[in-house]
What does this fold into?
Amino acid sequence: MIVTVAFTNGFQFAVSQKVFSFWGNIRVQHYQADKPSIAEELPISKNDTVLKVLQADKGIKTVQAFATKYAIVKGKESIEGVLLKGVEKDYDFSNINSFLQEGRWLHFSDTGYSSEINLSAYTANQLKLKVNDKILIYFIQPDGSHRVRPMMVAGIFKTGIEDYDKLMAIGDIKLIQRLNDWKEDQIGGYEIFVNDYRKTVTVNNALFYKLPEQWNCETISQVYPNIFDWLNLQDQTIVIVFIIMIIVATLNLVTCLIILVLERTQMIGILKAVGSPNLTIQNTFLYHGAIIAVTGILAGDILGLLICWLQQHYGLISLPEDAYFISKAVVKFQWWHIALIDIITFIVCFLVLLIPSLIIRGIRPTRAIRFE
It folds into this structure.
């Protein structure tokens, strides 16, 4: 049970942190009804009042502007469609440093826009591109025309999340502003990182009522519900696994305890013959059973924590990243989880111990002494 909880919590944490690292915990942008999760935004002007509201919230760590635009990247032999995510010069790349596989993150220009771009490993492989390769990017305009920009691949990243790796690229927000004929203070929205990801919903709900009417805020779990719904299914899986474990363990305990009583039938008969009351004999079995249960729980704790420690330090268990979004199983547990598992296990064991104590009441001394 300890291993199951630790691995499931670790899996949920690792995948959700990947999603948060790329898009933040909350997205603030112009309100658009029925807007797809991945689509270009309507422009909004930077608003000092909104920024003050966001920065005044103690639950918010950082606020970063962004904008997106669809583009077609032409490689040496083929083309691929991407959604270019434009970021500002002060963008905090430390959140996604772990995704960088080759090269570096793009450099920004003090004058004009940067002509560098970061592509995903999937896009780079499809187009047979490497770091420092020159490419052409075609941007389709609303009127059907297209604009071409020469760019250089500064670095290649891989998140392990298919929705990102097959579509996303990172560039300069100034390029998107110029292509869309936006003003310098117009952006697609803000991505917000919170101090405690577990309070994302609380922070989002508080912001919703503080923002102007034309602004909207959504948690990333609302933007990408398919990923988070899949993660939440793991909680149901844990419950099912626990129920199966408890049923199997209970059946084994009952069988072993009944055998233990049968082996001690003569001893029970002798104790009753010399005047020992049923309660005394029952307490003897309960006492020794409790010792065995506690010993087993402690041994299980040690073994479970040892497995978690080995996985955490050596990564013995690998996973196909294409299917699970992570390459190695991640371990994450809280001490109250272990305490709760131990308490529930002891209670179940103790309740099961009551079964042989009831059998003891029905044993007759005369028949028990002759029992073989």
About this structure: The CA atoms of residues 3 and 303 lie 9 Å apart.
